Amino acid sequence: MAFVVSARKYRPVRFEDVVGQEHVSQTLKKALQTDHVAHAFLFTGPRGVGKTTCARILAKVLNCQNVTPNFEPCGECESCRAFSENASFNIMELDAASNNSVEHIRTLVEQVRFQPQQGKYKVFIIDEVHMLSQSAFNAFLKTLEEPPPYAIFILATTEKHKIIPTILSRCQIFDFKRIQVKDIVSHLQNICAQEGIEAEGDALHVIAQKADGALRDALSIFDRITSFSGKKITYDDVITNLNVLDYDYYFRLTDALLTEDLQQVLLIFDSVLRNGFEGDHFANGLAEHLRNLLVCKDAETLRLLEVGDSLRERYRQQAAIAPASFLLTALNLCNDCDINFKMARNKPLHVEMYLIKICFVGQAVLLATAAGVEKKTPDVSKAAPAAPPKEVPQPEKITDSVPPVSPKKPETEAAPAAPDYAENGTSEAQTVEEPASPARPAVSSLRKTGIGGLATVSLQSIHNEIAEAESNGAAVKPAARLTLEDLREAWAAYIESIDKDSVRAILKGAETSIEGEQVTAIVGSALAENTIRQETPLMEFLRKKLHAPLLSMVIKLDPSRSNAAPAKPKRLTDSEKYHAMKAVNPLVEEVRKRFDLALEGGE
Q1: What is the CA radius of gyration of the chain?
Q2: CATH 1.10.8.60 in the chain, residue ranges
Q3: What is the per-residue pLDDT for 524?
Q4: In degrees to the nearest 10, what's the CA dihedral of 129, 130, 134, 139?
Q5: Ranges in the chain annotated CATH 3.30.300.180
Q6: Residues 283-313, buried b or exposed e (16+ Cβ, 10 A)?
Q7: pLDDT for 373-416, tens place per residue?
């Protein structure tokens, strides 16, 4: 027996067999039940979702001689058998893609004139109707609007926007939707049961996702995989034949990103490239994986995850250890990588750079949360006497306060401090070799950088600032000990250190308070709020003055504190002045009439 593809072999012959289009099948069955069948239908939607199938089932029911109680075709009467054998004279199908001229439509109109030989209706199914020419549409209008009572037209198209409005207004329109992954998987499982094929659930999910909502595409992929695998379909066979990246790549990559294992991240990406995948394909797959992890964060959105049960549990476990801030920032970086991929000349390096950013984005977020975003250094020359310039400490000067350095690398002690490390007030030897201690733990030497799009301050610089304050005899004041008097004193000192009178006036008029390590400034206008917000040196001055490196500020707007000048009185016209005088003394009108006076303006 000749092989028949699954899309034809398992094509639905009843409304209840149609997959994922219950809203259409139920409406058509209700119309048949109440005898409210329109004379023209338009079935529109993506490819492979059942438009032509539903049109054939409807045409079959209309002429069925023994319709079932559920208004399904019996499949046994003479009309049903003739349709199944392509021998029915009452049901005609026309492919508008190849029959789109005026002559073809005129031939169709001529056939409408003849009554059905058997049955009650003559049904015309026109597929890809959007391919008809403008003249063909115009020739079809009159017949489509007022056909004989026995003629029914069923039009099918994937591009409704190409059909002229006069045709749309004459049809009852049914919109077919993309078939859900779970419905495609269920249909494939039924076919496997009938064919005696053993298939893994994850393998069928990959086929359904690759089909992109089209059941016909899913059945074509299924036949292709069956030809390769025989009676047993495995997940590995599917991803090998469909050239799909394994989920395991993304799970291992995410684990490496969360642990900041850059070496493993680059090795995984190299393995992907060696398997023949493009960088943008890999980046889009990573974005989809991160999106699925974000979906697993909430039980309400978990239903949006379209994977098998085993993968669902694996996603849930990884989502539990992945911070939401990391997932959102990584998603944003993946999106930027995809947007800029086409313009990159070295595309693998382009993807690697974004992977490096994602790898360290967790540390960048923590640093930004701890230290805040800093861009400028304030001018404090007027607030306190200028301190002598701080010299970069050399390795030999640190040995008094730091335990001896291991003599494994003696060359680092003699080498001068590198400019990059001198930027943070520490030498290369101190940053690399300084052991951890309870008072001052060793941290990474990240400086002001742009990891993940965030400008952050190095945690090392904060430790240096604290150590400098301790060495000068000034103790860092705990958050609980910061008082309003301290804040007002520091606030007044900053006001005296700036030159702009407008800024000084705004800062003097602000009402300040402090709670813990948060300063609140209440102002009376949006201009004042904007001015204080743009005064970036203010916060660093307060942090140094109060010895509180983690100090933050909130600016609140209170319009009742506005000191705006009162509105000037409205200037009266001559006519308004005259009427006001007349209201006070009516004799003014008598004087005007006696001397025959006239006001400007014709009064």
Answers
A1: 40
A2: 181-241
A3: 83
A4: 20
A5: 479-561
A6: bbbbbebbebbbbbbeeeeeeebbbbeebbe
A7: 454 445 444 444 444 444 444 444 333 333 443 444 434 344 34
Question: CB of 52 within 8 A of CB of 7?
Answer: no
Most confident of 278-292, 294-308, 479-493: 278-292
Q: Using CA atoms, how far apart are residues 388 and 379, in angstroms rounded to an integer?
A: 15
> How buried is residue 410: exposed, middle or buried, by Cβ count under 10 Å (0-12/13-18/19+)?
exposed
Residue type, 376: K
pLDDT in tens, 215-272: 888 999 998 888 888 888 888 888 888 878 888 889 999 999 988 889 999 999 998 8
Pick the CATH number of 479-561 from 3.30.930.10, 3.40.1190.20, 2.60.120.1600, 3.30.300.180: 3.30.300.180
Phi-psi region for residue 260, left (φ > 0), alpha (ψ -120 to 50) or beta?
left
The architecture that CATH gives domain 181-241 is: Orthogonal Bundle (1.10)
Contact present, 155 and 126 (Cβ < 8 Å) = yes
Determine what percent of the chain is predicted with pLDDT higher than 70: 78
Give CB contacts under 8 A, 24+ apart, made by 257-260. 257/326, 257/330, 257/355, 257/358, 257/359, 258/321, 258/322, 258/326, 258/362, 260/359, 260/360, 260/362, 260/363
| 247-359 is classed CATH 1.20.272.10 | yes
Query: Cα–Cα distances in Å, from 474 out to 46, 468, 471, 548?
Result: 72, 9, 7, 12
Residue found by looking up tokens 């995989």 in the block:
225
Give the span between the Cα atoms of 217 and 187, in whole angstroms.
13
Q: Does the pLDDT of residue 586 top 60, yes or no?
A: yes
pTM of this structure: 0.55
**Domain 6-175, CATH number (from 3.10.450.710, 2.40.50.140, 3.40.50.300, 3.40.50.150):** 3.40.50.300
Q: Where in the chain is the domain with CATH 1.20.272.10?
A: 247-359
Distances (CA, A) of 54 to 74, 476, 507, 588: 16, 77, 73, 92
H or E element at residue 514: strand 511-515
Alpha-carbon torsion, ordered 336, 339, 345, 351, to 10 deg:
40
Q: Are 64 and 80 in contact (CB under 8 A)?
A: yes
| Residue 194 pLDDT exceeds 80 | yes
> Where in the chain do CATH 3.40.50.300 domains reside?
6-175
pLDDT of residue 461: 60
